[in-house]
Amino acid sequence: MRLTLDPSQLASALNPWAERLRKKIDLPLQVRWHGGPAVALGNFDTARVTVDVKDAAGITALLAPSLENLGRAYVEGHIDVTGSVQDVIDMAHRLAENGTTEEQEGLLQRLLHRIAEAGHHTREHDKAAIQYHYDVSNEFYAQWLDPAMVYSCAYFETGTETLEQAQQKKIDHILTKLRIEPGHKLLDIGCGWGALVLRAAEKFGATCVGITLSENQHELATERVRAAGLQNQIEIRLQDYRDVSGPFDRITSVGMFEHVGLKNLPGYFRIIHDLLTPGGWALNHGITSTDPQNGETSHGGGRFIDRYVFPQGELPHIGTVLTTMQQGGLEAIDAENLRRHYARTLEFWSKSFEAGGAHLKSLVDEKHWRIWRMYLVGSQWAFEHDEVSLFQVLCRRRGQSAGSIPLSRRWMYPSS
């Protein structure tokens, strides 16, 4: 049904809704219908964000303002927003927190999500999900990532590093934790554009296999290996982790296990166990839920990510990670929380994305540009506010002698 209200009629219709919200909270935000009279949700003089409603679906999103509904309305073009992206995401969260959506609705949606996800992590489904996210275009990612195109949490040892420096420090931090030595055979599960295996071969002397399900990543990573003259040390494969044969002295998995699925985690870690040599070590670096029940982020943010960004992605709590590692035959040696580091990483990415707006819009359609814009700044907010976290967990096959591990963590932080 078409909405026939003119701008002044709609402003009048929205006033009761705005008045109810103003009694709860003073938001520096105003809403307009096709550029008509603005309805303020706070003081007009302090408004930092303007929402322009394009159609009835946009109004519906505002009246039931979950992050999923608001994000969907923006991505699909039912609303436009004016203001800094940081202010926009802050207003979205404050609207969602003070909206009319009942908590029961959120619980129901999470239950339906779990039911819908059951059985979906086949090789075919996982490949399609990975290619949906990573095969947008290499040039698109290159515009806002660091030069090595490392698409995972960086490591800011002092907080003064550039993004490029922090990404290299992250890779070195991982490889140092693993005590990589010349001649070790390393498997990198979800190798991205090849930055980790290149570093492991060049600096640490490892022989490496990197696997990915993204055709774009496979192509560029292979080119980078060839350009570095490391074809004899590094092999990049377009391969599912379930199809790899071992053994390997060291295994890394960085930003990949989020795609495995909660019910598949014991099997995933069992595969890592089976691929390791008896004295081998592995490191899993991945995003985790801060809900002990492995729930989604609040106000529908997780459902937005699932719909538009990471189809079939599921985040376990760190407790679930450690439990399923043990079930898979692995002993956790060390766990490090890098939540603050990921918030800072995403701040770099989001600023670069905003700065590259015009060129990025020429590389993808408007919808994909809007998806990634909200995804980056929304994820930054989630890490800053403990909605999600990031853990590096160092592990090895369980049941080994305690004497084979140093007594302190000093080896992880060598003197510079």
Give a quick rundown of the structure.
The protein has 416 residues and is of the alpha/beta class.
The CATH superfamily name of the largest domain is Vaccinia Virus protein VP39
Computed Rg = 23 Å
Arrangement of strands in the largest sheet: 7-6-5-8-9-11-10
Determine the CATH topology of the largest domain. Answer: Rossmann fold
| Helical residues, percent | 40-55%
Instruction: Name the CATH class of the largest domain.
Output: Alpha Beta
Please give the largest β-sheet.
7 strands, mixed
- How many H/I helices? 16
Tell me the number of structural domains. Answer: 2
Low-confidence stretches: 101-119
- Provide the succession of SSEs: HEEEHHEHHHHHEHEHEEHEHHEHHHE
Distance between the termini: 67 Å
| Overall number of strands | 11
Shape-level CATH architecture of the largest domain = 3-Layer(aba) Sandwich
The helix-and-strand class reads alpha/beta
Structure explained in plain terms:
The protein has 2 domains: 7-101, Nonspecific Lipid-transfer Protein, Chain A, CATH 3.30.1050; 123-412, 3-Layer(aba) Sandwich (Rossmann fold), CATH 3.40.50. The termini are far apart. The protein has 16 helices and 11 strands. It is of the alpha/beta class and 416 residues long. The model is unreliable at 101-119 (pLDDT under 50). α4 crosses α16 (366-384). It has helices at residues 7-24, 56-63, 67-75, 85-98, 103-117, 123-134, 138-142, 163-177, 195-204, 215-227, 265-275, 301-308, 318-327, 339-355, 357-363, 366-384, and strands at residues 29-33, 39-40, 49-53, 79-82, 185-189, 207-212, 234-238, 248-254, 276-289, 330-337, 388-397. The strands form 2 sheets. The protein has a 7-stranded mixed sheet with strand order 7-6-5-8-9-11-10, with helices on both faces. A 4-stranded mixed sheet has the order 2-1-3-4. The chain is elongated and about 75 Å long.
